[in-house]
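Z., the sequence and structure:
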Amino acid sequence: MLQNVIAGVQGIIDHVMVGHYVGYTGNAAIGVSWQVILVVIVFISSLFTGMAVLVARFAGANEPEKVNRVVYQAFLTAILMSAIMGVIGYFAAPALLDLIKAAPEVQHQALPFLRAMFAGIFGMMMFFMLSGAFRAAGDAKTPLRLGAAMTVLTIVFNVLLIPRLGTIGAAYGTIASSTLVSGYGLWRLFAPHSVIRFRKGMDLSPDFSVIRSLFRFGLPTGVQGIAMNIGGVLMLRFIGSLQHSAAAQAAYAVCYTELFSLITWTSVGLLGASATIAGQNLGAHRPDRTRHGVAVASRIGLGVAGVIGLMFLLIPNVLLGVFGMKDPLVTSIGTQLLRYLSVSGFFITVALSYTGGLQGTGDTRSPLFISIVSQIAIPIGMCAIIQTMRPLHPADIWLAIVLGHLTRAILSVLRFRQGKWQNIEVDLERAPAA
């Protein structure tokens, strides 16, 4: 949770600086660009979900060699996928921005930012892989150190680059910091006392039995992530169709992407914790502790959501002012959105905690179907129906987001309590002889 709060602060600082040096079109550009980038990141990161399922289960069963074997194969696969998706994303960037109907002034700022992020995506992918691997193996401190270092470096780079280069300076800062930190993290894999250790003389060839297992457990999560982010992209299309689209996109970028991340990023931390606790205890044949751990994680999340939601209600103008948002129209839309998000935070933190429990035990398919219903069918369907009857208003879109999060929370809790995850088996074929 702390690591993700630190990462969220980094994004907030990016938006604050861009808002002051570039204006709210810069905030909108970063917001819509990240919505596109996340589609790619989440898909590649699905491998890391599969990796975490295997690593947590083998760590709980006290099988360190299988842990090392899984992480190395995830590393090889991530290199290849990062290269492929980076090239595709770079050349498809203009079409992707057209797809979400970004305003022309927003596209002008977003295109170079988006292309730079795709070109430098490798460092970020390695950071996510390393963080997930160490955490699933039981070492939560190393990812925290890596995340804190990356945030500090990003802030330093951005202070130097954004005033000189504008929006694209934020991209360069993120690329530089993630690459440096990932290099250090890879070096840590060779440390003698690391919970994950790559040894000299280990088999460096691809092991397709492990890679198949990564995709078996990870691919549903990748499709789930793509579905969720496609839902986000489609929501941006609806926002782009509003009367004051640029102002609404800027408010959405700051309120939903940054301020709401104080809840979502901590909840993603709880998702990772739930997955680790669930997988390790199931590997140790303690399903009772799996249930209890997930319930505790959701209660922690509710406490965080309550505190941050209260801030959204009591001091919205202060929060928006931090980002340099002084335009009356933007602040009006942003204040309205924060009121809706103060309620939505309770639902999303419960949903993510129980999603982690499902994924950690190996049930990665249920969250996929739940996400399709809650993040696409309900909010997109609601907005589409309203748009056929009358022009959309911002409040229509904000309400659709809340109802989607509510549905996701209810379905995730019900599915976990069915307990079918207890019967999922995880193992690897015997490693080939050297």
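DSSP finds 15 helices and no strands in the chain. Residues 24-60 form the longest helix (37 residues).

Let me know what you think.
H.
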